[in-house]
Amino acid sequence: MSGDDRSAKVYALHLAVLAVLFALNFVLPAYYHGLMARIMVLAVFAMGYNVLFGYAGLLSLGHAMFFAAGMYGTGLTIVHFGFSVPLAFVSGIACGAVLAFVIGLLALRTSGVAFMIVTMMFAQVFALSLIYFAGWTGGDQGLVIPQPARILNLGAAFDLTDPTVRYMAALALFAAALFATLALVRSRHGRVLVAIRENEERTKMLGYDTFANKLAAVTASGTISAAAGAAFALLFGYVGANFAGVQYSILPLLWVLLGGAATTLGPLLGTLVMYVVTDTASSFTSAWLLIVGVVLILLVLFFPKGILGTLRARWLGWLP
Amino acid sequence: MAFGPHLLLAVLEGLVTAAVLSLTALGLSLVFGVMRIVNVAHGEFFMLGAVLAWAVANALGGHPALGFVAALVIAPLIVGAVAWLAERLVLSRLNYNPESTIVATIGLLYIIQQLALTFYGPEARPVAPPFNVRLSLPWFGYSAYKLSIIATAALLLIATWLVLTRTKIGLTMRATQYDSETAQAFGIPVGRVYAGVFALGAMLAALAAVLIVPISQAHYLMGQDPLLLSFIVVIIGGLGSLRGTVVAAVLIGVSDGVVSMFFSPTLAKMIATLAVALVLVFRPQGLFGTAAR
């Protein structure tokens, strides 16, 4: 198969997925419509995680801090400074990018197990400081962003609390993140990241600056996660410390593992499947954490490549 | 109360924390030292110990001391069995790959937590202390039970140290830690040693929890703080070093007690966590440890 043929297939697949998501807007019943918007935003979070975990092979246990940095960077500037929607969104992303760059500078001095623990600890400090500065952040209670502050003025006014507008905004963010990661992983930088994942020493020996490449990966990953957090704050109007907790560092790992690490569409699929599973299960049990735990263990034991990773290994070698 | 007695009280409270912490952290440190894996579910073994202690004491009734002593024996045994099973069924099949084991122990964490919530419930329940004596110091009264925690923990630490350095079991463990392939070649059943170490680590956490449960309370979310603090202690003390673990536990326990008493507990945790993350970044071998092989 020639390279052009492959590219055409890849773009066709990604556009088809976006088309399906667009069409779902008109057919889904209200409850699932809202849920799907949420899934798309969280899938962006998972895609950010996937850049670092899937492609660069760095397992972070602290990504909730980047998601929460975006969320609070947006929410706090709206509540305390009265920022408009676009400005607050940008400030959320900027907060996440700066935080990710600084954390990357520090945490990348370690590797392996130490990297996981260090990221977890930085995230814990971040979560604790949200609670400590409760006067600003609302602490455990969090903050609700009032409806008038969530109207996007671009000539015409878009009310982000309206279900259709919200769905389309989530879809737009998702599409942007999808093509950004697709471009990233098909770029030179993306291939260097995969090389680092497979054999860091050899990559270094070939003359690549592995530290700079990994730092760029952490920053990109944190920025995408922050964009998801910022969008979550705007679309769902709530900013809370629980989004900075350990659980929200584990969930993107779970989604990516389930959908398939190092696949562009894996994060969406993993998030979607996990939501369907917990949603179905919640009708007969409230023990959804049990499901999370069991799925995690079954995945690492029997299915380490995830859904799309297995498909790619077996049949669809062209899948990015 | 004047500053001096206030400080003494803070130090005493800190020593109690340090006693429990050194047991818990020693468990984590042993598992890391011998098996080279990070057990994220360690805090849940602690929680399970406390919850089982309540269940045992509650089922027995009678004099509090009877229930407590029974709990001190039964709870760690059950927790050890659970850990042994988890090691044989899951971790051994992952070939102790660091990333897979972390993910698997995260799964284990959620499973244990959810089961505790389902079967034990969301309430925090106390266990009666085995004896209720207050020592009158010149400035304040202090619970004799809390002092006995320090003594018991010290005894258990010495016992663990003796097992590690003076017995055949300890020798086998150290040989496995030093070089598992050579140990295997010399006929040491490495798989069984790993399972035993994992169970022992969990049992130490459970013991610590049984000791603390009369003065705190058993709750299904109580495993998070010990996990984080144990990480902190093990990292500062140097991974896999018993002496370093104890020194670091005292350091962290006492400073946590002092900072919590004079400032805010949240601030104390923030500072400790940040400090340790930075230690790990700039001095990965720990403050007292030597560089890892």
Automatic annotation (TrEMBL), chain A:
<dbReference type="InterPro" id="IPR001851">
    <property type="entry name" value="ABC_transp_permease"/>
</dbReference>
<keyword id="KW-1133">Transmembrane helix</keyword>
<feature type="transmembrane region" description="Helical">
    <location>
        <begin position="89"/>
        <end position="108"/>
    </location>
</feature>
<protein>
    <submittedName>
        <fullName>Branched-chain amino acid ABC transporter permease</fullName>
    </submittedName>
</protein>
<feature type="transmembrane region" description="Helical">
    <location>
        <begin position="284"/>
        <end position="303"/>
    </location>
</feature>
<feature type="transmembrane region" description="Helical">
    <location>
        <begin position="12"/>
        <end position="32"/>
    </location>
</feature>
<feature type="transmembrane region" description="Helical">
    <location>
        <begin position="38"/>
        <end position="58"/>
    </location>
</feature>
<feature type="transmembrane region" description="Helical">
    <location>
        <begin position="115"/>
        <end position="134"/>
    </location>
</feature>
<feature type="transmembrane region" description="Helical">
    <location>
        <begin position="167"/>
        <end position="185"/>
    </location>
</feature>
<keyword id="KW-0812">Transmembrane</keyword>
<dbReference type="Pfam" id="PF02653">
    <property type="entry name" value="BPD_transp_2"/>
</dbReference>
<feature type="transmembrane region" description="Helical">
    <location>
        <begin position="253"/>
        <end position="277"/>
    </location>
</feature>
<keyword id="KW-0472">Membrane</keyword>
<feature type="transmembrane region" description="Helical">
    <location>
        <begin position="215"/>
        <end position="241"/>
    </location>
</feature>
<keyword id="KW-1003">Cell membrane</keyword>
<dbReference type="InterPro" id="IPR043428">
    <property type="entry name" value="LivM-like"/>
</dbReference>
TrEMBL record, chain B:
<protein>
    <submittedName>
        <fullName>Branched-chain amino acid ABC transporter permease</fullName>
    </submittedName>
</protein>
<keyword id="KW-0029">Amino-acid transport</keyword>
<feature type="transmembrane region" description="Helical">
    <location>
        <begin position="6"/>
        <end position="33"/>
    </location>
</feature>
<keyword id="KW-0813">Transport</keyword>
<keyword id="KW-1003">Cell membrane</keyword>
<dbReference type="InterPro" id="IPR052157">
    <property type="entry name" value="BCAA_transport_permease"/>
</dbReference>
<feature type="transmembrane region" description="Helical">
    <location>
        <begin position="102"/>
        <end position="122"/>
    </location>
</feature>
<dbReference type="Pfam" id="PF02653">
    <property type="entry name" value="BPD_transp_2"/>
</dbReference>
<feature type="transmembrane region" description="Helical">
    <location>
        <begin position="45"/>
        <end position="62"/>
    </location>
</feature>
<keyword id="KW-0472">Membrane</keyword>
<keyword id="KW-1133">Transmembrane helix</keyword>
<feature type="transmembrane region" description="Helical">
    <location>
        <begin position="227"/>
        <end position="254"/>
    </location>
</feature>
<keyword id="KW-0812">Transmembrane</keyword>
<feature type="transmembrane region" description="Helical">
    <location>
        <begin position="68"/>
        <end position="90"/>
    </location>
</feature>
<feature type="transmembrane region" description="Helical">
    <location>
        <begin position="193"/>
        <end position="215"/>
    </location>
</feature>
<feature type="transmembrane region" description="Helical">
    <location>
        <begin position="266"/>
        <end position="283"/>
    </location>
</feature>
<dbReference type="InterPro" id="IPR001851">
    <property type="entry name" value="ABC_transp_permease"/>
</dbReference>
<feature type="transmembrane region" description="Helical">
    <location>
        <begin position="142"/>
        <end position="164"/>
    </location>
</feature>
<comment type="similarity">
    <text>Belongs to the binding-protein-dependent transport system permease family. LivHM subfamily.</text>
</comment>
